[in-house]
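In the laboratory, one determines a bound structure by crystallizing the protein with its ligand and collecting diffraction data. In a computational setting the workflow is compressed into a single prediction: the sequence and the ligand go in, and a structural description comes out. We illustrate the idea with S-adenosylmethionine.
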Amino acid sequence: MTANPGTRASSHSHMWLVGLLGLAAGLALLIYVPTLPAVSGVVLAFAGFHLAGAVVSLASLYVLTNGKVLGRYRRVQGSGFDFGWVPAWTYGPWIAALISVAAAMALQIVAPLWWPLAMAFLLLAAAFFAGGLVTHASGRYEAAVLPMVDLLARPESRVLDGGCGAGRTTVALGRACSGARIVALDRFDSDYIEGGGRRLLERNLQLAGLSSRVEIAQGDLTALPFPDLAFDATVSAHAIDHLGPQAATALREMRRVLKPGGRFLLIVWVPGWTMFAVANVLSFFLAPPRAWRAMAADAGFAIVDEGRFNGNWFAVLQKPDV
Ligand SMILES: C[S@@+](CC[C@H](N)C(=O)[O-])C[C@H]1O[C@@H](n2cnc3c(N)ncnc32)[C@H](O)[C@@H]1O
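The predicted complex, in structure-token form:
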């Protein structure tokens, strides 16, 4: 089985590294690069690198402190939902893009013969910029689309949303399955969702008019706090791919709590252009669809449908009828 990145809920915690590296790079642009003879001799470049360094340093400080030092800029969408993604997640790639552009320019000025490397930095900057667009958009309600699949055998089913976070998928599920009763489960301890997500989940459910149909449960995907056969259907989006080697346990847990014939909609990140833009080389460590297919089969599921949307891979898995 291919390894998944991260082993626990806070697997995006490497994002603090982006902030720290950004701060170091920003200070280098601000203090060191302008002292290089080739740069200091050109007034525009001298001033430009000071400016770029200041912007990168301040933005990195913002990311590092989750917006606490420079104040929080949170664009609540027209829908009013707030899924709580912290600044390190939403803005980190754009800082990396700025640094890459500055590095390309510095290299071009100081060592013009190294232009192929400068070009590579520019391409990297373009990839980071695209990654920033993706991570930024993930906070929007429109990004909460679910693939159109045949999930429920009957409308008034009981459905589990495992790893619900601040409720992006729960709200989408609640709207798509208007008769369903939903249980939204999470550990509510991730460091990339503000406050772990519980408070925002409650607020988002209220806003969506779903509070009476959704029950909130705190628990772990690898040891679900429900009896066997408790659900008609289950969903888990962008959560089981955070579990590393424990993903297989979570899949078995999903099967355990499903009734015979019940379906499980699994949505995970897989390697591809979208994920390359977001995670760069780290995206190569994501498990590909064939690894997920094998894991699902090992857990006792049959695959009834699968496909890709928005750079994600989804599968509709079914627990066999007995
Ligand atoms: C990227 S968020 C996805 C949230 C939501 N499904 C969505 O698509 O917006 C992943 C969520 O999985 C949760 N999570 C990760 N590992 C978990 C575990 N072992 N048990 C319960 N929740 C977990 C995290 O706390 C986080 O809220």
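Residues 9, 83, 163-165, 168-169, 186-187, 190, 193, 197, 220-222, 237-239, 242-243 surround S-adenosylmethionine (CB under 6 Å). Keep in mind that any predicted model is a hypothesis to be tested, not a measurement.
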